[in-house]
Specification:
Layout lengths: L6 H11 L10 E7 L6 H20 L8 E7 L4 H13 L5 E4 L3 H13 L4 E3 L14 E2 L5 H14 L4 E7 L2 H13 L6 E8 L7 H8 L6 E4 L5 H11 L6 E3 L6 H7 L7 E4 L15 H15 L5 H20 L4 H9 L4 E3 L2 E3 L15 E6 L2 E4 L2
Parallel strand pairs: 1-2, 1-3, 3-4, 4-5, 6-7, 6-8, 8-9
Antiparallel strand pairs: 10-13, 11-12, 13-14
Length: 382
C-alpha cells in the first residue's frame, strides 16, 4: 500500500478498511508494551498517544471489516524484565493477534522470544539491529538501526576529515548494541575510536568520564550512543567540562524531550535523525513530505505537544500492521505475518519500506537525515 491510502489524516485508508458487507471478524485485539514511565518515558509516551489516536480514528470509521480494534497497552516502566512479563500476558491472557511496541532495544529483545514462540506478529519500535538481524520469522521493525546510525555519523565525519574519535556510551541495550556496531563499522570509513568511557542508567553526572576524554590528545570528535536521559546528561556535562570538539549523538536522542533536558548545551550537537524532525525544510517534491506533514498536524492537534520521532515510529508500526491485515483479509496470525513480509513501498515517517523474507527492516540509509540543533531547533546539518 502506498502513502496515498493515508492522505488526509488516513481518510482513504480508513474508508478502505471498513467492509461491512464482508463477514465480521471477532474482536481485533492488538497489543503494545511501551515505556510510558521511567527514564525512557518521554520516548514511550508519544508512541502511546499515537497508537491511541489512530486506533480511535479507525474505530470511528467502523473499524476493520466492521469490527473495532481493541488496543491493549502495558507500561513496562522502562524495564526490560517487566516488558517480558507483559509480553507473556498479552499472549496468554489477552489473546492478541499482533503486537506493536517495544520502546527500547532491551525491551524488544526481551519480548521477541515470547512472540516468536507464540507465532504472533511483532512490529518493534526500537533501534537495535539485533532485533531483525538475524531475521526472525514473526519480528519486524520500521525504525532505523544502530548500525545505520554509525554509518551515517561516520559518513559525516569523513566529509569533515574527522578520523580520531572518543566514545562515551550508556549501558542500556540500545547503546551497547550501537557501540558494537560502530566498532565494527569504523574501519570502513577510516575512523578510529581511540578511547571509550561508559555510564550507567542511574548516573546523573558523567563529568569524570568526560574529563578523561578532555585529557586525550588529538581527539577530533566525540560519539555518544544512548537513549533516555543519558544523552542529555552527557551533553550538559560536555559543555561544563569545556570540551569543544563536535559532539555526535545517536538517533535515540532525536526528541524534543532531549532538547528540553539538555537546554542551551544542545546547540551544535549533530545526530542522524528521521526526516520527521525537519519536515518543513524538505522540498515539496520530496515524496515523504506529505506523510510527515499530515502526521505532524494530526499528532500536534491531538496531543497538544510537538511531534516526536518515536511517535512517528508508532505510526509506521501500526499502519504496517493494519495494511497487512487488510490485505490478509483475516485475523490469522500467519497470514498477517506473511502480508507484513510482503510490504512494498510503504511510505512511512522513516521513509519508504519494502520488506522481504531476508529483510524485516525494509529501509536503506536514505531513511536517515543528518541533523543538528541550532537555537533549540532541529535543522538539516550543513
Amino acid at each position: 500500500m502506498r502513502s496515498t491510502m493515508r492522505d488526509g489524516l488516513v481518510t482513504g485508508l480508513l474508508a478502505g478498511l471498513v467492509a461491512c458487507a464482508a463477514p465480521a471478524w471477532a474482536e481485533i485485539r492488538i497489543g503494545s508494551v511501551l515505556s510510558v514511565t521511567g527514564p525512557a518515558g518521554f520516548l514511550g509516551t508519544p508512541e502511546k498517544k499515537t497508537l491511541e489516536m489512530y486506533v480511535e480514528q479507525i474505530n470511528a470509521k467502523g473499524g476493520i471489516k466492521g469490527e473495532k480494534i481493541k488496543l491493549v497497552v502495558y507500561d513496562d516502566g522502562s524495564k526490560a524484565d517487566q516488558a517480558r512479563t507483559f509480553a507473556t500476558r498479552l499472549v496468554e491472557d489477552d489473546k492478541v493477534i499482533a503486537v506493536v511496541g517495544g520502546t527500547s532495544t532491551g525491551a524488544s529483545l526481551a519480548m521477541l522470544p515470547v512472540f516468536e514462540e507464540a507465532k504472533t506478529p511483532f512490529v518493534s519500535l526500537s533501534g537495535g539491529v539485533q532485533i531483525v538481524d538475524p531475521v526472525r520469522k514473526y519480528t519486524f521493525k520500521p525504525p532505523q538501526t544502530d548500525i545505520m546510525a554509525c554509518q551515517k555519523i561516520f559518513e559525516d565525519m569523513k566529509k569533515r576529515n574527522i578520523t580520531r574519535v572518543a566514545m562515551i556510551y550508556g549501558t542500556d541495550g540500545f547503546a551497547m548494541s550501537m557501540r558494537a556496531s560502530c566498532q565494527k563499522a569504523q574501519g570502513d570509513y577510516g575512523i578510529k575510536i581511540e578511547h571509550e568511557e561508559s555510564y550507567g542508567p542511574s548516573d546523573a553526572d558523567v563529568t569524570p568520564q568526560l574529563a578523561n576524554i578532555k585529557k586525550l590528545a588529538g581527539i577530533q570528535a566525540v560519539l555518544s550512543p544512548g537513549i533516555g536521559q543519558g544523552p542529555a546528561i552527557v551533553t550538559r556535562n560536555y559543555r561544563q567540562v569545556g570540551l569543544t570538539q563536535p559532539l555526535y549523538l545517536s538517533h535515540g536522542a532525536a526528541t524534543n524531550g532531549f532538547i528540553e533536558l539538555a537546554g542551551p548545551a544542545a546547540n551544535g550537537v549533530r545526530m542522524p535523525g528521521p526526516a520527521l524532525l525537519v519536515a518543513n525544510e524538505l522540498p515539496n517534491s520530496d515524496p515523504q513530505k506529505k506523510v510527515l506533514i499530515d502526521y505532524t498536524r494530526a499528532y500536534e492537534a491531538h496531543a497538544k505537544e510537538p511531534v516526536s520521532a518515536f511517535g512517528g515510529y508508532a505510526y509506521d508500526g501500526l499502519f504496517l500492521l493494519v495494511e497487512a491485515m487488510q490485505r490478509a483479509g483475516t485475523t490469522n496470525r500467519d497470514r498477517i505475518r506473511d502480508e507484513i513480509e510482503k510490504t512494498r513501498n510503504f511510505m512511512g515517517t522513516v521513509g519508504s519500506i519494502t520488506m522481504s523474507p531476508t529483510d524485516h527492516l525494509g529501509i536503506t540509509l536514505a531513511a536517515f537525515r543528518m541533523i543538528e540543533i541550532r537555537d533549540g531547533k532541529w535543522k538539516l546539518s550543513e
